[in-house]
Amino acid sequence: MKFLELLLHHDPKFTNVVIFSNELKTFFVQKPHETVLVPFTNEQEKTAEPLSKDEYLWEQSPKDLLDQLAYQTLEVQLHYLLFESLLAEHAARFISMDNATRNAQSLLEETQLQYNKLRQAKLPKELTELVSNI
Questions:
Q1: CB 76 within 8 A of CB 9
Q2: C-alpha Rg value of the chain to the nearest Å
Q3: In angstroms, how far is CA 111 from the centroid of its own chain?
Q4: What is the pLDDT of residue 42?
Q5: CB burial class (10 A; 0-12, 13-18, 19+) of residue 48?
């Protein structure tokens, strides 16, 4: 993704990147949400024991590995935010179209009722004209 390439390889480096998106709380409730992409935050418990450097052997240098993991992490976060925002948009559209359908149905029922009332009011007039002509 070009956005991620720009984000990771821009000179000077970005110190803070915040994305605002929709968060789907329930199907009927969507709220704006702020997500900090850069800098990365460590959500791991502070009490967790750090791993020693001798436990794992990596073929890549730590910088290359960190760059690759940062790219993948940002890509996953961005996809998640986009999909969640898209889901919230579709939910809002669904609710909007459902309300429009209900309003149209209500309008159709009102119009049908008015038509029937006018037609019924017209019938006695036609009957009196018919009887008076006989």
A1: no
A2: 32
A3: 36
A4: 63
A5: exposed
Is residue 7 within 8 A of residue 17, CB to CB? The reply is yes
Q: Low-confidence residues of the chain, pLDDT below 70?
A: 42-54
Burial class (CB in 10 A: 0-12, 13-18, 19+), 24: buried
d(CA 111, CA 72): 58
Helices (H), the chain: 2-9, 62-133
So what's the pLDDT on residue 46? Answer: 57
Q: Which two tokens mark 6?
A: 């720009």
The tokens 């900090």 sit on which residue?
Answer: 36
Residue 77 and residue 35 in contact, taking contact as beta carbons nearer than 8 Å:
yes
* Amino acid 101: pLDDT: 97
The answer to whether 40 and 102 are in contact (CB under 8 A) is no
* pLDDT recorded at residue 80: 93
Q: How far apart are CA 19 and CA 4, in angstroms?
A: 13
Residues 68 and 63: their CA atoms lie apart, in Å, by: 9
Tokens of 110: 């009102």
